[in-house]
User: Fold Methylenetetrahydrofolate reductase (NADPH) from Aliirhizobium cellulosilyticum.
Amino acid sequence: MAILNLFKNRRADEKAERASFGALLDGYSIEVMPRTAAKIDNFREFLPAGMRVYIAHIDGTPIEDMVATAKRLTEDGYAVMPHVPARLIRDKATLEDWISRYVNDAGVTQALLLAGGLNVPRGDLESSLQLLETGLFGRYGFKRLHIAGHPEGNRDIDKDGTTRLVDRALKFKQAYSENSDAEMAIVTQFAFDAGSITRWVERIADAGVTLPIHLGVAGPTKLQTLIKFAISCGIGPSLSVLQRRAMDLSKLLVPYEPDEFLTEIANYKATHPQSLIDEIHVFPLGGIRASADWVNERVLKGKVASQ
Assistant:
């Protein structure tokens, strides 16, 4: 009888874990680039209706392609959020031109404000804080503005390896949000070390940040691809997680899937219900359809487990 009860308890725990895991992923967001969007005939075949879809603005992508992709996704019924990278924008006039195109041509009222990946800005703007300070997003009626979060720091900003400047910028943006009509949230870079994420979440909360966090997660892909992106994006503690995985030949030969990482995050959320972690944002490094199918399957399993 004791063994039977132990088995039943274990099954109940596993069911609860699946439900918690699925609930964490439910309502996720994802991103796409114009050149990859052009290869997809119908997003509605695999992206849930009404979900938030970010459009990554990579250096060299014409604004016309960004706006056309935004218009298409808006017409498909998605909440479209293009990246606005400050360092790609020559001046305030160019920024206003981009914003007016998004609003008037594509019906967009959301944006992710970023510094951008360039080491040297193309013009007068170099930070997301400067984008906010122009006041243009408020003037054009943007209802939602997201900003970047860096749980493991950002060497492009804090070259000394600390988090001093990114922390200070986050406090400024928190203050801005308190005087803005737009809903704001923090979208983080993807990571693989749950401990570094939860420590950062608690640290910024203790510093007075109340903005909800949309936690970045890498979708399923080859381990070699992940390591390449992790190095280029300056991932810190998470890179060591991938390196340890690469030493395990049994894991090296199969695609990476973020189940273990997200299970840790879901368990943390279950024991810290007031945590700032609010949603999951998926970086589809292995392809948008593969990532969406992976998430959708786990959301469905979670819903079944919760019944």
User: Anything to note?
Assistant: The two ends are 26 Å apart (CA to CA).
